[in-house]
Amino acid sequence: MKKIAGLLALLLMLTSCAPTSKYQKDFFAMDTFFELTAYGEHAPEALEAAEALSMELDAELSATDPESTLYALNEAEGGAVEGSIAELLKIALPLCKSTDGAFDISLLRLSQAWGFSGGEERVPEASEIAALLKSAGWEKIVYENNTVTIPEGAGLDFGAIAKGYTSQKISDLLASYGVESAMLSLGGNVQVLGRKPDGTLWNIGIADPSDDTRVAGSVSVENAVVITSGPYKRYFEQDGIRYHHILDPETGSPAESGLLSVTIISENGALADALSTALFVMGEEGALDYWREHDGFEVVLITEDGRVLATEGAAFTPAEDSDYSYSVVG
Predict the structure, then answer these.
(1) Residue-wise pLDDT tens digits, 15-50
(2) Which domains does the chain have, with CATH numbers?
(3) Rounded distance, CA 42 to CA 179, Å?
């Protein structure tokens, strides 16, 4: 009987320590809603720290807030950098190079001209776009010895990488508090830490870009980030034409790539965020070629002609009611 009682006591102790208590923290940062969910004994203080970190990064990385570090850096056309800006430059510039400029962090003034980074949404004149393109270009950014030089007429913009970078920082922070299970949603960018509390994989839906009330399918992941970019997320209409926020660095206008969305699955938040934009700009053929030549991520593409293309490692499961044809690419 003593042995049975001892086993029961041990079972109760283990059960009480299991990370089943759910805690949530919701707030607004980086122009979007953050929904952070974590489980376990240390989740409450970890989430408090995560909110503080998010606000700190927002104050540093916003390209539109006159009080931010990045805003001041752009106004001065460069200067000494440290912290997250220095870290992001080290991450982003190699990605600009490897994507042949499909990912470009120098397009702030173009984005502002279109009204996607503050100001009125409008279609700029062709001459204005040409002039802004002449000033922009990631290869003109000089970063060395902890100092960055920004071309006159250009501006640094981490909008296509900052949320992925932030979700990775939050995930690492939660892990440092001993949190083993969490889901982070930053404006639809989803990063998960570990598995669900019951030990199963997280099932993350991928939106149907033609109907935001449905999903095209899902992926099952652990310790990963799932980030989707597409023209359906942010756009305006003028004279009956829709203009979306993903600009093609070659044309200075919204990218016309034949894709409706690109989803990246990776263990690296910043990488996934940047590549979701870059591969959208590249289009189907360029995106798949890039995937074949680089490691560290999987891809799900949804095309304008009604197809879903998923790399084998993405382990994509189509929705039962999906109208898209589906194929695995290798």
Answers:
(1) 444 447 999 999 999 999 999 999 999 999 999 999
(2) 201-330 (3.10.520.10)
(3) 6
